[in-house]
Amino acid sequence: MAQIQESGGGGHGKGGKKRAKKSSTHVDMTPMVDLAFLLLTFFVLTSTFSKPKVLRMIFPEKLDKIDNVKAPEVKDGLTLLLTDKDKIYYYRGSLKPTTELIPIDYTRTGLRKVLVDYNSDMLLKLQDIQKRMNKVDEKDTAAKRKLDDEVLQVQTASKQIVLVKNDEGATYRNMIDVMDEFMITQIAKYFVIDEGMAKLEKDLIKKQGN
Amino acid sequence: MPRSNPTLDMTPMVDLAFLLVTFFMLTSSFRTPEPVVVDPPTSTTKIEIPKQVFMITVDNKGGAFIDITNAAVKSRVFEKVCNQYGMKVDSLTVKKFAGSGAIGMKLSSIPQYLELEANERTKVNQTGVPYDTTGKKSELYWWAFYTRTEAHADFKMREEEAKTRKLPFDKSNYIQFAVKAASDAKYDAVKNVIQIFRDAKVKQFQMITGLEAEPSLK
Predict the structure, then answer these.
(1) B203 touches chain A (CB under 8 A)
(2) How many domains does chain A have?
(3) Could you give the C-alpha distances from A158 to A74, A96, A191, in angstroms and in order?
(4) Domain of A131?
(5) pLDDT at position A46, please?
(6) Does the beta-carbon distance from A171 to B11 stay under 8 Å?
(7) Are B7 and A116 inside 8 Å of each other by CB?
(8) Does pLDDT of B7 surpass 80?
(9) Looking at the structure, do residues A203 and A165 belong to the same domain, yes or no?
């Protein structure tokens, strides 16, 4: 270890010529290093690098005359019902007392598979556009914009509509998971129903539970 | 042959250590103490949180906690809300409020809370800013309302300033509304809070989520 050499040969000795001390220039740096690493460890452990990520959600403005707004009626749509204990059901088309709810889960083989199958037409179209996009030159902004427009057109023309309804038991995580799946599977049109589930839907779920 | 002294030159190591210390000191920012710790759900989105946000934290009981990252706007909003309820506040309280982190209590108890020392503040049990789900204008509504108007005013002001000084204008500093809700909170509880903000004509929300692995369609 670096050390200050002590006893430089008797500074205040009696008699004898006073010689210049031949002290070494070594400084003991151990405490400084200790301190430096202590601080280093502290800042490494307390600092956070990654900023949190966000999922953008746009809610329509609230209307004063709510009576005129009806829940979108969908002939061949997909309705997701979120309920307690992380359970999720879906059904196709409009709601009838005979409608059969199909239980799924939030995994890749559950919800995502259902959505991918449902949205397969659009996914193929979007993949095709993406392929062409990859061939386009980086600097060719006009061609890029044209393809972006095409994506928008495909999304606007999409007939695949998904309704999301929840009951009192559904958690915030469930909703975010569903939104995330919509992003992954490129569902262009989905509606979260403010009022939640209808009574009939709750009854059907209850029947499923038994 | 003389016996060599087992010394080690530590200078480069110290150099490196201090370099790293300096780097971490400068890059890290300290978190302000939060009245509640919530664990947000995860998603695969890659969009980063905007620079300036009005942070709405919703805990698993549905309590709402608010914070604004821009101190100037935060103090102006506080003054406006106090004014709305006919409350008199001095400039010191406003200044303290701007640096106090997230807050979740009714307006009338805020000045008293700000009197406390920082370590005593953490002991105060906060349950959330009061709000009303039936559509009456509650305290949370006015917080949302004045933040929206002040955020816009702040944006316009800086745009004007940039124009007169002929400087480039950074549009990304617009204060946006971010929701950080506990993943085990009931969706209805989170929806009720969002509903208040929709009443105040806030339409776009950034839902804060943790990071998740890259998805695959297969």
Answers:
(1) yes
(2) 2
(3) 13, 25, 14
(4) 120-157
(5) 75
(6) no
(7) no
(8) no
(9) yes
